[in-house]
Amino acid sequence: MKKTELLLFNNVSVGIEQSMALHNLSMVIFQEEITGILYENSVSGEALLKLLSGNGEVKNGTVSYCRKKLTDLKYLKKQHSIIGPVPNVIHTLSIIDNVFFSQYSLCIMRKRVYQTKLQKLYYLFDIHIPFQKTVEELSVVERVQIELLAAYISKKKYVILSQFSSMFSADEMELLVPVIMKLHMLGTAVIVVDSYERFIYRITDKAYIMKNGTAVDFLSGESLNEYAVTKAFCPYVSPGSDRLGQDKLYEEMQVSGKAVLSADQVETKLLKKLNFVLREGQILKVCYTDRKLAEDFAGLFTGQTALKSGNMVWKGPESSQGKPRVGVVYADSVHKVLYPDHTVEFNLLYPVMTKTSRLFWSEKYLKHMKQLLAEELPEEIYGKKVRDIDDTSKLSLVCAKWYLYRPDILLYVKPFPSFYYEGDKLTEKWMKKIAARGTGVIALESNWPSYIEISGIAKNLDHYAK
């Protein structure tokens, strides 16, 4: 059967903030297929979403839609829907209003008519959400189901599913898969954009693997599996094994100079064959459901977990000089790290690590420090005692200490414990800010709020349980 070409990117390059995020990217997306795109860092992911949604600016190359070259990407804005961590539903409207919102400019019907239409849609997609539910009461799965119905009603040519692997558990995915497949069968193309392959394995017909801003591999059918994906990201995987060749790994780190830590076939009391590479400026998402697995993993960084076999290569060829500086942020770090009877300024100047020599207290350093933190900590707060500032400022203060200290690796243990939107978004902001200074950040979390937009490589500890 002849396939219908929907999108074609030919040697496309896209820049973000004076740096090239996508380099000579070439791929084709067909209307009849569910296409996956797996990327490794947040910059490439952000640029890719902008490109697919018509919000990017192409520096080089060409973009074609339905075999017609586009001179302005804005044409794509009306052709798609993005469904992901950021809700598209309007909380002041009912479920019916959200599904049929795009139709109001065409015709006005009585509410009963729309209820009948929605009942038919529910039957068509096998959805069972009570009409009387308010939008605020919807679960994340139900919210996504409503957004998929809205995409169908508004006749979008394609939908972009972003970061579903970090949003949903396996059981939640199974509730969404039939709705997505039905939408696809009714003629809507589906593009899955993710930094973690779990959902891509489950639903896509083919997948492009992106590394360093360009497509390095194309997988489909039986070739779309964990080994092939690992090999695409790490070319030195041995056949029949997922073990990284140590000599090649050292060579790669020596050439790039950016690897902070490599775990190769690591085995502990509870974990087996754990592999990952953490690089400067990268945020590694580590998911888990078993608390003991999480404690075992965190102990690798705090020295409380014994390594039975495998290698933890710290800073590659520089590992003989000792381990890098490692910091850990716990949910209760506000109480553990800060001195409540001292001022904010004292807490920022006092070293996070007790073995570190005291920072030089000069007016020049103080001025530089306040300039670095001006956006997050207003100057009037520096003279206040920690016990007199609000919880949000205390959280910022903990993160600011690590931002100033610049460890090589910073491990966040359950950074989003309360699903408190303002606090969680603040933590997310600091994670990105700290990573931007070159620190390799690891976020160890069991429940990722849907509104958290951290992208990057993800690992699921459950896959490495003994």
Describe the 3D structure.
This protein has 466 residues and is an alpha/beta fold. 33% of the residues lie in helices and 24% in strands. The chain contains 15 helices and 18 strands. The protein has helices at residues 42-53, 95-99, 111-125, 140-153, 164-167, 170-185, 198-203, 226-233, 246-256, 291-302, 333-337, 344-349, 363-372, 391-405, 421-436, and strands at residues 5-16, 19-30, 34-38, 58-65, 68-69, 80-83, 158-162, 189-194, 206-211, 214-220, 259-267, 274-279, 283-287, 309-314, 326-329, 409-413, 440-445, 458-460. The strands form four sheets. The chain has a six-stranded mixed β-sheet with strand order 6-7-8-3-9-10, with helices on both faces. Strands 15-16-17-13-18 form a five-stranded parallel β-sheet, with helices on both faces. Strand 16 (409-413), helix 15 (421-436) and strand 17 (440-445) form a beta-alpha-beta unit. Helix 4 (140-153) runs parallel beside helix 6. The chain is globular, with a radius of gyration of 24 Å. Mean pLDDT is 78; it is low at 236-257, 316-321 and 352-361.
